Amino acid sequence: MKVGYSYLIDQFSVNTKNVKVKYIDLPKQAHAEDMLNDIRELLLKTGQYTLGPQVKEFETRFAQVCQTRHAVGLNSGTDALFLSMKVLNIGPGDEVITAPNSFLATTASIANVGARPVFVDVDDEYNIDPNLIEAAITPRTKSIIPVHLTGNPADMRRIMDIAKRHKLHVIEDAAQAVSATIDGKAAGSFGITGCFSMHPLKNLNVWGDGGMATTNSKELYDKLMLLRNHGEKNRDECVIWGYNSRLDTLQAIVALRLMNDLDDITNTRIKHARIYDEGLARLSDYITVPPRKPNVRQVYHTYVVQAKDRNNLYKYLNENGVEAKIHYPVPLHLQEAAQYLGYKEGDFPVCEAQARSILTLPVHQHLTEGQLGYVIETMRKFYKA
Asked: Domain end: 207, 235, 259, which one?
């Protein structure tokens, strides 16, 4: 079946006044009734609201997807980052290298363990630039946290080589990258841990907050299992002072149902991104699509381009029924919370230039081909192309 942009334009006929293209459309998720029945069973019959058997089942299946030996269900992707650093004894006096264009949680987790965030500029794929990492390494550096932004894995081969030479831990912020791969190797399996979010906006989501940490280390797995549950060895014995960061059984029930659709969700988003790529190639004077590497499976948690006259295009799209977003308009080093780090405007020119031009288009699995065509045509009308 043809799905390309040209086909869409040939077939596309719609009253554009009534077109709405939502950024996300959660009510269309499949299996809702099955999930509610499973939850009803949990509530009325088992009462295993925390750490029920579904949590372990989900952890096992998630580890298989990520090609790791272990996975630990947690309260959020933020907790996955925070607890990964805690089990690695990263804290006051240490430095952690990361990118300045991620969601707040990446840098906040570093700061909240007491370490100092150190930023490195990004490349044209919006990921941390491996060419700049070594210049940021000091005797205080303990870890690198690359962020697989948009669901596109960072250059993990080079990052792992750098980390090995300098004896540093690599913690993958894979919050947006479940099922992404490089040469068939899964995001979350390169570093000492991989950190995932299952926030409702993610490709694999739950009905609230949820997270997962993956690892091949039995030692770290055991420590993570302790830390997520108050450090309890059993009901009466505490081994270390821990946290309350369990993944609820209810959320595991939701995730298990949606895991059955993960391949379809991923492949549909990839198909939608390819339609955008083809259609927006005709707007190359105005729209810059990031490079696509043939050995990388990018899963498109977001579809982000750079646009000329971004602010007006953003306004025009939303006024015409296309719910576009900007991820993220203010880089982390320019946030008020980061002032104590001493960074200033101009320190990371690539990131800052991208922040002025990036635009996120809806790419979720519930979109129709007609809606994709409408987004492209609306952008062509704005640029009068």
From this structure: 259
Rounded to 5°, the CA angle 294-301-195 comes to: 95
Output the CA torsion sign for 23, 300, 101, 381.
negative
pLDDT in tens, 83-135: 999 999 999 999 999 999 999 999 999 999 999 999 999 999 999 999 999 99
CB 202 within 8 A of CB 103: no
Cα distance between residue 281 and residue 260, in whole Å? 34
CATH number of the domain where residue 15 is located: 3.90.1150.10
Peptide bond into 328 cis (omega under 30): yes
CA gyration radius, the chain: 21
pLDDT in tens, 123-141: 999 999 999 999 999 999 9
* Domain region containing 216: 32-259
Find all residues with CB under 8 Å of 20, minimum gap 6, and list them. Answer: 321, 323
**Cα dihedral: 200, 205, 210, 216 (round 10):** -140
Report pLDDT digits (tens) over 154-193. Answer: 999 999 999 999 999 999 999 999 999 999 999 999 999 9
Asked if residue 137 and residue 270 are part of one domain, the reply reads no
How big is the chain, counted in residues? Answer: 385
The backbone torsions φ and ψ at residue 366, rounded to the nearest 5 degrees and listed phi first, read: -90, 0
Specify the number of domains making up the chain. 2
Burial label, 101 (beta-carbon count in 10 A; 0-12, 13-18, 19+): buried
- DSSP string computed for 141-157: EEEEE-B-GGG----HH
Residue 204 pLDDT > 60:
yes
234's CB contacts (< 8 A; 6+ apart) are: none
Please report the pLDDT score of residue 257 as a whole number: 94
Name the one residue in this structure whose structure tokens are 């030996």: 69
Could you tell me which of 278, 234, 215 has the C-alpha nearest to residue 7?
A: 278
Domain boundary among 221, 241, 259: 259
User: Which DSSP state fits 36?
Assistant: H
